[in-house]
Amino acid sequence: MTNITTRAAFLFLVIASGILIGTLTAPGNWYASLAKPSFNPPSWVFGTVWTTLYVLIAMAGWRAWEAGRSSPEMKLWWTQLGLNFLWSPTFFAMQQPWIAFAIILALLAVILAFIRLSWPSDRVSAVSFVPYALWVAFASALNLSIAILN
Length: 150
Prior knowledge:
The chain is built from seven helices and no strands. It is globular, with a radius of gyration of 16 Å. Helix 1 runs antiparallel to helix 3 (43-67) and helix 3 (43-67) runs antiparallel to helix 4 (72-93). By secondary structure, the chain is mainly α.
């Protein structure tokens, strides 16, 4: 696969899958009825932030892929993607905020491990995951608050 094909494939995989999962597990009446903390952002923020993060996630993925398809970085990248895509169905469709909280904490740990492991050899990928880590840390606090309040 050429670099352009690889990059397009990663962009498509991450963005299309994120959109699909987001559409299939969109917040509904259950989520609207929940008590939320004062720092809960307006709903339009989530789509904007996730679109940007998915581009950064895809970029780190193709860089890890091009550096070594079975590298530890690539394994962490796939793990974070799986956990990322597992969170929405668990929280919104299954309506299990405590289980979703465990998933998001695992996701944050994997993101941080990816940053730490990538830092010496691929700073671009490591730095591209920093906003992702910050958002997931914020989302973890939001998830925990919602679980406690409900």
